Every structure is written in structure tokens, then in C-alpha cells.
């Protein structure tokens, strides 16, 4: 099978193997995707819970903190990713040490994805039926 490709597609074989090949690109894509999903998911859950807790009806109502956090989430959600990538280049260089490569792409990917997770968590928690919360409190859940 390898001889078939070498004979009929001699220019394609180097692309699919070796350094800089398709397998390396797939590995880098999976690395960026999985790490972004995990880190942004954790940060999004934390920020989403903070948004619910510090809301005016929340358990830890803190209007100034909620206002700032809510506006940050809205701003980061509104900025297109390519602009966020360019704006965050100095921050990326400070954190990672370089502005290019898959590891450098993680910083803007996480910054761009976290607000979406946070808003989803906030909306999910705010749509819980108050009767369910009241029943849980009646059963002794704190």
C-alpha cells in the first residue's frame, strides 16, 4: 500500500508523514481543543456560579462584583475571536513566552470560550424551578 502512494502520489507522501505532517496538525488540534475545553469549562463553571451567587437575588448578593463580572463576560462574548487573538498577543507572550504555536493559541482560546461556558452555567442555574430548591431545603440540603 505504501508503494502505491509513493508511486502514484509522490508529492502527498511527505505531507502525511514526518515533521509538519497532517498527523502533527491533528495532534496539535486535539491538544488545543481538549485543553481549552477542560480549562474553559472549569473556569466557566466557577464564573457562572459566581454570577448566580452575587446576583441581587443570590445568596452572596454583591451588586458591584456582579456588575463588573457580568460586563466582562458580555464584553468577551461580543468580541470576535480573531480580534481577541490580536488584542491578547502581549498577554499571551507574557504568560507563555511566545505569540505563536499551539500553546500560545490556548490563552485566547480559553479567554474566548470561558464566557460562553459561564453564561450557559448561569442560565442553567437560574432556570432551576424554585419548587425544587424549596424541596431540597426542606429535606435539609444546605
Automatic annotation (TrEMBL):
One of its GO terms (cellular component) is plasma membrane. Its main location: membrane. CDD domains: TM_PBP2. Keywords: Cell membrane, Membrane, Transmembrane, Transmembrane helix, Transport. GO terms for biological process: D-methionine transmembrane transport. It is found in: Cell membrane. Pfam families: BPD_transp_1 (PF00528). InterPro entries: AA_ABC_Transporter_Permease, MetI-like, MetI-like_sf. It is a multi-pass membrane protein. Residues 26-142 form the ABC transmembrane type-1 domain. Coiled coil: none annotated. The keyword Transmembrane applies. The chain crosses the membrane at residues 30-53, 65-88, 94-118. Belongs to the binding-protein-dependent transport system permease family. This is Metal ion ABC transporter permease.
Amino acid at each position: 500500500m505504501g508503494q502505491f502512494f509513493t508511486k502514484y502520489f509522490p508529492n502527498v507522501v511527505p505531507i502525511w508523514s514526518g515533521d509538519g505532517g497532517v498527523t502533527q496538525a491533528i495532534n496539535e488540534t486535539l491538544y488545543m481543543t481538549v485543553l481549552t475545553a477542560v480549562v474553559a469549562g472549569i473556569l466557566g463553571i466557577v464564573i457562572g456560579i459566581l454570577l448566580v451567587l452575587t446576583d441581587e437575588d443570590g445568596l452572596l448578593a454583591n451588586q458591584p462584583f456582579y456588575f463588573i463580572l457580568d460586563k466582562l463576560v458580555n464584553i468577551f462574548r461580543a468580541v470576535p475571536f480573531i480580534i481577541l487573538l490580536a488584542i491578547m498577543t502581549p498577554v499571551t507572550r507574557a504568560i507563555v513566552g511566545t505569540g505563536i504555536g499551539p500553546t500560545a493559541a490556548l490563552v485566547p482560546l480559553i479567554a474566548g470560550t470561558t464566557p460562553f461556558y459561564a453564561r450557559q452555567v448561569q442560565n442553567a442555574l437560574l432556570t432551576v424551578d424554585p419548587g425544587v430548591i424549596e424541596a431540597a431545603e426542606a429535606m435539609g440540603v444546605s
